[in-house]
């Protein structure tokens, strides 16, 4: 089973930047697509950005041009560089990864979430 641990969240002023990191650990055969999702109180969890193992990215329209997702396959890590942050970006951010198990099967893992607050 894969465990995901997010870090880098916190309080930042509007227009500021923050870099989120997510480390995958545990037992797995391969990590496939990874991504970042966010969820505000009373709202559904929405996709922010995803990245395939080969580096193909996809972004929510609301963050396009401001956020950049990247990954380091050798370190089993995924990152989210967030620039020009807005109060609307305030959410709990969750790391997601799809992976194959050692003895077969494909499953998704979720991190515990890291809060991001954009406020003056």
Q: Which short descriptors sum up this protein?
A:
120 residues; single chain; mainly beta; elongated; seven-stranded mixed β-sheet
Provide a descriptive summary of the structure in words.
The chain has strands at residues 2-7, 10-12, 18-26, 30-39, 46-51, 57-59, 67-72, 77-82, 91-100, 106-110, 114-118. It is mainly beta and 120 residues long. The model has no long low-confidence stretch (mean pLDDT 96).
Helices and strands in order, then pairings?
Layout: E1 2-7, E2 10-12, E3 18-26, E4 30-39, E5 46-51, E6 57-59, E7 67-72, E8 77-82, E9 91-100, E10 106-110, E11 114-118
Parallel strand pairs: 2-11
Antiparallel strand pairs: 1-3, 3-8, 4-5, 4-9, 5-6, 7-8, 9-10, 9-11
How would you spell out the order of helices and strands? EEEEEEEEEEE
Helix content: under 10%
Q: What's the β-strand tally?
A: 11
The CA-CA distance between the termini, in Å, is: 40 Å
Strand content: over 45%
Overall structural class, as computed from helix and strand content, comes to mainly beta
Number of helices: 0
Mean pLDDT: 96
**Main sheet overview:** 7 strands, mixed
Low-confidence stretches: none
Brief synopsis:
The protein is mainly β. Helices cover 0% and strands 57% of the residues.
